[in-house]
Amino acid sequence: MNKKVRVRFAPSPTGGLHIGGVRTALYNYLFAKKYGGDFILRIEDTDQTRFVEGAEEYIIESLAWLGITFDEGTHVGGPHAPYRQSERKNIYRQYAESLIEKGYAYYAFDTPEELEQMRERLKAAKVASPQYNSITRNSMKNSLTLPADEVKARIANGEPYVIRLKVPRKEEIRLYDEIRGWVVVQSHQIDDKVLLKSDGMPTYHLANVVDDYLMKITHVIRGEEWLPSAPLHVLLYRYLDWEEVMPKFAHLPLILRPDGNGKLKKRESGGILTFPLSWHDPITNEDYLGYREAGFLPEAVINFLAFLGWNPGTDQEIFSIQDLIQSFSLERIGKSGARFDAEKVKWFNSVYIRSTDTQKLLPLVKNALSQRNVTGFSDEYISRVIDLMKDRVVTIPDFYGLATYFYQEFDQYDEAMKQKQANAENIQHWQALLPQLKNLNIWDATTIDRIIHDYAEINKVKIGKILPTLRLMITGVSFGPSVPEIMALIGKEKSIQRIEKALLLWTQPTG
Ligand code: GLU
Question: Which atom of ligand 1 sits closest to the CA of residue 24?
């Protein structure tokens, strides 16, 4: 590539950033980094009616959490500032007016009632999709139908108007999509889109194209939902005489629900998370749990999202961000929708937790503990719990949820396991072993393990018979890390107490 790659993520601050938007940002980031290009954050907030307080901050915080950084943007500045479209309002009008001068756009004065009447008329005439277009514009109030001096007078009088693109009647619009190949659209399928609204604000189409041009964007990588707008954008580039520097287009496949039935929604059942960080929707007052708060590591979410629509063409699944930058290419992005797989993201998370340094996990686990009011444990103690549990957890809160016995006493035992283990024979073995454990001066996993093994050997009892009983007494559950390791960590006093308590409970006559 000869030109410096410049790509942008251009969200509208209309709510929390959905996971699909995060994927779009990620692919742009990977593409920019791969080619040593620039990555720009542009906030497309021209539709003031849809503006949501806090959305921009949420977008920035989410991407920062994931390690997706920008070279230019609302929060970091840059040579093309401002990067918020509402602050660029004055830029767009001149382009809309230049299109009028060249005969590619026109003023339209139709009131909302007149537009409604037009739609009703067309519906009555059985027109499938009533539109303001090359045919209907001729019977509307615009600078193509009204005398020139009336147009001038209306504008001078401050009458509200919009500027519409004059889409040709019969033209084939071809655009090359880097993922889909040639896309051909007939111009009669496109209506005369509004470019400048009556409040003076540009619409998405005008602002998007003008800014991509001014910000020297080389590649537009965005969701498939924007593909229908792309032919219109091609027309705009052509009419503005920018076709030579028109960016390349790549429309990413949709993210589908796990069963492939439709697009992934904001709210999904089955524990599917669709937001990077927890989000409170101020409009609907709904709360969404985020990946961060649910105890996912950003590296795992990145790896998972990278595969939602892209694949490296090999069996390798674990990719650090650096690996992704190296391997990423638009050619390996699929055309068809990518199914969201809730189990897969959990799998990635467990893999990443396992390979993450305990000291890096420590603050996250401490935070999860304090949220559950579990306090009073040293960093060293928690670190050892992390070491023991690391390859058994899926999310950070599991360092508590699957490991409560490291932090607190209990008197409930796994019922099925108790039925199996709390029999007279096992109880009697542990009654015999208990004094030996009590007598130990050295309390570490090796010594505890040796005492149990020696006992099993001398008494000709299988270790696999008595050890599960010990696990139940020490943890209350049927699975977990090595029992002697757990006992070494919780200490002699607690270990002995738990055994004594279980033996007592299990030998009490049941009423
Ligand atoms: N503002 C659009 C959005 O919210 C940007 C689409 C594009 O990237 O062109 O997704």
Answer: 8
Q: Which residue is closest in CA terms to ligand 1's atom 10?
A: 11
pTM of the model: 0.95
Selecting among 89, 266, 390, 501, the annotated active-site residue is: 266
Partners of 219 in the beta sheet? 7, 248
> Which positions ≥6 away from 454 have C-beta within 8 Å?
none
- Pair type for strands 248-252 and 162-165: unpaired
Give the Å distance between the CA of 471 and the centre of ligand 1: 55
List phi, psi (to 5°) of 195: -105, -40
Tally of CB atoms within 10 A around 281? 17
pLDDT of residue 48: 87
Domains of the chain, earliest start first: 88-204 (3.90.800.10), 357-398 (1.10.8), 409-507 (1.10.10.350)
Residue 266 is among the residues annotated as catalytic for this protein: yes
Task: Provide the terminal-to-terminal Cα distance of the chain, rounded to the nearest Å.
Answer: 82
Q: Is 35 in the pocket of ligand 1 (CB under 6 A)?
A: no
Q: Kindly give the number of the ligand 1 atom that is closest to the alpha carbon of 44.
A: 1
Mutate to test the pocket of ligand 1, among 8, 28, 44 (most ligand atoms within 8 A of CB): 44
Given a contact cutoff of 8 angstroms between Cβ atoms, the answer to whether 44 and 55 are in contact is no
Q: Is the CB of 217 under 6 A from ligand 1?
A: no
Backbone angles phi, psi at 81, to 5 degrees: -60, 155
Determine if ligand 1 sits within 6 Å of the CB of residue 222: yes
Residues making up the chain, counted from first to last: 511
Residue 180 Cα to ligand 1 middle (Å): 19
pLDDT tens sequence across 195-217? 999 999 999 999 999 999 999 99
Residues 434, 474 contacting (CB under 8 angstroms):
no
Q: Angle, nearest 10°, between helix axes 298-306 and 19-34?
A: 80
Distance from CA of residue 452 to its chain's centroid? 49
**469 CA distance to ligand 1 centroid (A)?**
59
- The answer to whether 74 and 67 are in contact (CB under 8 A) is no
Q: Where are the alpha helices (DSSP H) in 372-414?
A: 379-389, 398-401
Atom of ligand 1 lying closest to residue 204 CA: 1
- Look at residue 510 and tell me whether its pLDDT is greater than 80: no
Q: Ligand 1: distance of its center to the CA of 1 in Å?
A: 25
Reported as a single tens digit per residue, the pLDDT across 41-76 is: 999 999 989 999 999 999 999 999 999 999 999 999
Q: What share of the chain is helix, strand, coil (3-state, %, to 5)?
A: 50, 10, 40
